[in-house]
Design brief:
The protein is α+β, with helices and mostly antiparallel strands. The protein has 2 domains: about 10-25 and about 110-185, Ribosome-recycling factor (Topoisomerase I, Chain A, domain 4, Orthogonal Bundle), CATH 1.10.132; about 35-105, Gyrase A, domain 2 (2-Layer Sandwich). It is built from 4 helices and 6 strands.
Length: about 190
């Protein structure tokens, strides 16, 4: 076993890229003063007994720069969609008009900008945790190989590879966070 152990670093990279992709999606949901349909992507509605993305229960439109509308297809879900938006932490007060939920996007004040930077930091931290969990999985694979006869030199080599990969992705998360926070604080 010791000579033919090959850690699948491509799999680790792919999974870490997935964490980065998820982070970018969450960052896109943070509004910076302009209306965007993507800001509702992480909001899940309890529809038909399971969490469902808003875009699967209604049509999301941006009719003007400071307004997002959700045209809910099922009248029975209108209140659930409204509740999900209220509880999402987006800081938007939905207004009902039949099956259409209007979301006026208020001008961002300094206090709200600071709150959004904190939310961005939480998203970044969860991405870092995901990257570290992937690192742990890689290290566990190395430990199993060590138990199966992997040499200590090879173990150290693979551990440093996994750690380098982890450090790279944590830096990417930090850079993305810094960029997003600057974007949020920009008036």
């Amino acid at each position: 076993m010791s000579d033919d152990f090959e850690l699948d670093t491509d799999d680790l990279k792919r999974r870490m890229d997935g964490a980065m992709s998820s982070l970018r999606t969450e960052f896109a949901s943070l509004r910076t003063g302009r209306a965007s349909a993507s800001m509702l992507e992480p909001v899940m509605v309890d529809a038909y007994g399971s969490p469902t993305p808003i875009n699967q229960v209604g049509t999301v439109n941006v009719p003007e720069p400071r307004m997002v509308t959700v045209n809910v297809w099922d009248k029975g879900l209108v209140n659930k969609v409204e509740k999900a938006i209220r509880e999402s932490g987006l800081g938007i007060n939905p207004q009902l008009n039949g099956t259409i939920i209007m979301l006026p996007i208020p001008e961002l004040n300094e206090e709200r900008r600071r709150e959004l930077t904190k939310v961005a930091a939480q998203y970044a931290e969860s991405a870092r945790v995901s990257v570290r969990n992937i690192r742990r999985d890689g290290m566990d694979q190395i430990k199993k190989a060590k138990a199966d006869g992997l040499s200590e030199d090879d173990q150290k080599f693979w551990e440093s590879e996994v750690q380098d990969l982890t450090d790279t992705y944590v830096k990417k998360v930090d850079a993305a966070l810094e960029t997003k926070q600057e974007e949020i604080m920009q008036v």
